[in-house]
Design goal:
By secondary structure, the chain is an all-alpha fold. The protein has helices at about 5-35, 35-70, 75-100, 105-140. It has one domain (about 5-135). About 85% of the residues lie in helices and about 0% in strands. The protein is elongated.
């Protein structure tokens, strides 16, 4: 299966990932933390925008690495993909969350680690389903011959 994706598809992939996550996370974290939905919604939107840009960059680099090395996206590879993605995201999100919520970096990191418990399986499942549905869709498209 090819993992060459256009910029348009990468935008679609990242936006669908983030919109679904936003729809789940903003109300859930608002309720769990006792923070207004508006305040939590704004934070999750900022995090989502950062995550979307990171998603596009990280997945582009991951696809290039796969083409160069030639590995198969097995479950361990998908788990490694999710872990590396989330570690990079933590570096960008923790300072923002600490500032926005008025807490220490340590408290923001602990909160982010709690959020990570949601996002690790979410990332693995979302990308696995996306790749599966994409492969089905791509196999049904007529092949075009270049002139």
């Amino acid at each position: 299966m090819t993992h060459d994706k256009s910029l348009k598809e990468r935008l679609f992939h990242a936006a669908s990932f983030e919109l679904l996550a936003l729809a789940i996370c903003a109300p859930l974290f608002s309720w769990l933390l006792g923070i207004s939905l508006g305040h939590m919604g704004a934070l999750t939107l900022m995090i989502s925008l950062i995550a979307m840009l990171w998603n596009m960059l990280f997945n582009t680099l991951f696809d290039r690495l796969q083409r160069r090395v030639g590995f198969v996206r097995t479950l361990p590879v998908r788990i490694g993909h999710a872990v590396l993605f989330e570690l990079g995201l933590i570096c960008a999100v923790v300072p923002l969350a600490a500032w926005w919520l008025g807490v220490s970096l340590w408290e923001a990191l602990l909160l982010d680690l709690g959020i990570l418990l949601f996002f690790l399986p979410y990332t693995v499942v979302f990308n696995w389903l996306y790749d599966t549905l994409r492969a089905r869709w791509m196999s049904r498209r007529p092949l075009t011959v270049s002139a």
